[in-house]
Write a structure and sequence with these properties.
homodimer; two-stranded parallel sheet; UDP-galactose 4-epimerase, domain 1; 40% helix; 323 residues; 10 helices; alpha/beta
């Protein structure tokens, strides 16, 4: 029997790369994707038997019906409102579309007594403002969530731990750091920089200055293609109820990344800060330790930052119009 | 102008005692109570100008309309699913009826730019399993929520901190310990013991044995009439964004309380444990420190446990039928 994956948020950037990874393994699998939006990417798979249902996971009845009928072996829950910036604008929607839709899914797995391994995807944002002495952060570090998005993720994580420990549901948890890669929406900073650079390079925009938010913040960037491998390995080898950082272990400021991208695309711009883009309470520095996932599963990131940035720029050079 | 209080969960035990306390202050105030159930207690107030609307706070439109029209000076949010036991049976409802209804209220206060002080009521359950070296727990102790109810309360608290710190909403937070007092529903353990003892005393039940859950657990019991004074003082003098334990500072096992109640009512019973009443993961010992609220506001509990227990027994002697 083929293994069955239910992937929520299957129209998204991470899901697309996860499917590509499953295909690369050349083992036939069944995947049911669900998403609130129709799927926009092409699906040319030979080993992934993919079907799709367009539903809003806030609709409990439909969600429950899908779990009951499909009875997945794996539930990869990627549906989320994953923009910190957006969560400041609409904190209620951010909470409902992170914590509540997840809770409904795991509760249905409990009520239906499904034998299903769930990946609960969390975020490095859960750590909040980390002091330098705590770097690189391990999974034992205290959580100080400092945005509505981060609170929603911590809530989801606390619920996952209760479901794993007390109800015996087979959940493995992640705290995923900033993923980047080709195909990411431009609401995320690296993708937005790359798109702007591509537009300038192609002459669609004429300027000698790029406007940014606070680019002194340091983040741990990990390529989405490494992230999806980590998700796959955790679904297979992760320990139930345990939380794993998924990160590169290296920190780079947004400024450094932007300068590297200018070098790759070979243009030089002035950098100017737009106060409107500065977030209310941004964490200064986040770098993670990936020792735990390495020790438990052997996973480590394989794609250097330079390669990720080059692929992201290539993606946008292909996807912004030409003059 | 009279001060205006919006009290959610106004049909409940705590709200009733809060209204009694407001009345005792002999200062005219306006109170709008809302509750999903009709109010069952008599309202004979001279200083409290009370009106009531029966609504489900999950109905966002109605909730928003009430805030918009009434424009309260104080929002005392008592509506909750406050039973830990129930939260194990229906974790989704516990989460929605704690975290989500609160989030909707504070977000409307934000969107309407109301000048309103909010009391966010949390619970000692947020601490989870406390090690003996951490007793009595102060507000700085790490939270390890170990029930769906506790997770919902921690989520509410994290949201409150974001709203206070980043959106500037005037919220004061509590972690309220086990409150007891006359009128409490029998789903709570002390009230259920008292009712059983009253039934036996009055000859409605003939038995020489009382069945209990795990009565070795130690809790910090605080009289509801002290709790509502704390809520009032925090609405007036609490510091925005700060969290306050509301507790007696003393620990008693359920066994000790049960024995004291038998002594008060003057009957002797065997005690037997019903495994069905033992919760999946109960915290062994919770005792709080009330130093912070004392230092900031002068509040301290005034009603001895003995008096609380006597009043609870009197309540049930008046409220169970006679043969």
């Amino acid at each position: 029997m083929m293994k069955k994956y239910l992937i929520t948020g299957s129209g998204g950037f991470v899901a697309k790369h996860f499917l590509d990874y499953l295909e690369s393994l050349r083992v036939p699998v069944s995947v049911l994707g669900v998403d609130i939006h129709p799927i926009s990417y092409p699906l040319n798979y030979s080993f992934v038997f993919f079907s799709f249902q367009q539903i809003d996971l806030q609709n409990k009845e439909l969600t429950n019906d899908i779990l009951k009928e499909y009875r997945p072996d794996y539930l990869l829950h990627l549906a989320s409102f994953s923009s910190v910036a957006y969560s400041w604008i609409n904190p209620v929607a951010a909470f409902v579309n992170n914590s509540n839709i997840f809770l409904n899914l795991v509760d249905q797995v409990r009520l239906l007594k499904l034998n299903c391994r769930i990946l609960s995807v969390g975020s490095s944002e859960e750590y909040g403002n980390i002091s330098e002495t705590e770097l690189p952060v391990t999974e034992k570090c205290a959580l100080r969530p400092s945005s509505p998005y981060a609170v929603a993720r911590v809530s989801q994580e606390m619920l996952s731990e209760i479901y794993a420990k007390n109800y015996g549901i087979d959940i493995v948890l992640t705290r995923s750091f900033n993923h980047i890669g080709p195909g990411q929406k431009e609401v995320f900073v690296i993708s937005s920089f790359a798109k702007k650079l591509a537009e300038i390079k192609k002459g669609l925009v004429v300027t000698d200055t790029i406007m940014t938010g606070n680019i002194s913040v340091v983040r741990d960037f990990v390529d989405v293609r490494d992230v999806v491998k980590a998700y796959h390995v955790l679904l297979n080898k992760g320990t139930k109820g345990e939380i794993y950082n998924i990160c590169s272990g290296k920190g780079n400021s947004l400024r450094a990344v932007l300068l590297k991208m200018m070098e790759i695309i070979d243009i030089t711009l002035n950098i100017s800060t737009d106060e409107l883009l500065v977030r209310p309470d941004d964490n200064k520095i986040i770098i993670g330790s990936n020792l735990k996932i390495y020790e438990d599963t052997g996973w480590r990131p394989s794609i250097p930052l330079e390669t990720s940035l080059k692929d992201i720029i290539d993606y946008w050079m292909d996807n912004v119009p030409s003059l």
